[in-house]
Amino acid sequence: MATSSKVTTAVDPAVVLAHKFPEVSFSYDERDAALYALGVGACGADAVDDKELHFVYHRDGQRQIKVLPSFVSLFPTKASNGVGYFDLPGLNFDPALLLHGQQYIEIYRPLPSYGNVVNKTKVAGLHDKGKATVLEMETTTSLQDSGEILCMNRSDSLFILLQALLYRLNGDYNPLHSDPMIAEVAGYATSAQSCFLFVFGSFVKILSDEDLCRFTRPILHGLCTLGFATRAVIKSFCNGEPTLVKSIFGRFLLHVYPGETLATEMWLDGQK
């Protein structure tokens, strides 16, 4: 979801909706997957955590490291300009006012720890919300050799520090997460942040209880928060097995500052 004020944004719906993105090929390896796991806190509390060490190390004869499902949230950035948004004809906005609104991920098969893949990106929706324009982007990622689909990312973006500095090495270099001056310009009041994960046919919700406030310093990437929540669910409900997560949904409505404690609440309801 992309939102921006009418003063800073000019939208030509016909041009936006007609735009065709070129396919983007790229590769990743175990270093990328391990760096991502560390970026969302894997083994942060215990360097030899029995349920997380396999995300960063070949243990007990393990031929490949395992990959966190939320790792694929990085794939759409391969088609963006490196700071988390797409150069899209017909949509002009102030990048300093860009915020990620929500993310939905579907996983179609176990993720290999390395591979050559292809992104196909399209505009999934464009909505006029009065004071804001809402842009939905959808990226489908396939194995380059076989054409088998790995995953789908659908994201909404909002236009109108150590953990962030570490996580940005995964490829999201938006200065909102590292530059104090830009963060102060972009900061504005928001409501609450919640994330939902789909595991074995059930949803798990993570909700913050912070009050409304205006951020005045760099904030953590929403996808980093989502990665922390995903990792917590895998460790607590999936016994450390990432392939049990089939889809993930997160809505980013309240910012998180690097260094704050993230609490993930989960509960069982029968078999869900």
List keywords for this structure.
single chain, 272 residues, alpha+beta, eight-stranded antiparallel β-sheet, two-stranded antiparallel ribbon, 5 helices, globular, MaoC-like domain-containing protein, MaoC-like_dom, HotDog_dom_sf, (3S)-3-hydroxyacyl-CoA dehydrogenase (NAD+) activity
Summarize the structure.
The chain has 272 residues and is an alpha+beta fold.
Please write out the topology.
Elements: E1 10-11, H1 13-18, E2 24-28, H2 30-39, E3 91-92, E4 99-107, E5 115-128, E6 133-143, E7 149-158, H3 162-167, H4 180-186, E8 194-199, E9 202-207, H5 222-237, E10 245-251
Antiparallel strand pairs: 1-3, 2-5, 4-7, 4-10, 5-6, 6-7, 8-9, 8-10
Query: How large, in whole angstroms, is the Cα Rg?
Result: 18 Å
Extract low-pLDDT stretches.
1-9, 160-165, 188-213
Count of individual helical segments: 5
Secondary structure tally: strands: 10
Largest sheet: 8 strands, antiparallel
Which bin fits the share of residues in helices?
A: 10-25%
- Tell me the strand percentage band: 25-35%
Largest beta sheet: strand ordering: 2-5-6-7-4-10-8-9
Shape: globular
Protein name: MaoC-like domain-containing protein
InterPro entries: HotDog_dom_sf, MaoC-like_dom, MFE-2_N
GO molecular function: (3S)-3-hydroxyacyl-CoA dehydrogenase (NAD+) activity; 17-beta-hydroxysteroid dehydrogenase (NAD+) activity; enoyl-CoA hydratase activity
Pfam family, one: MaoC_dehydratas
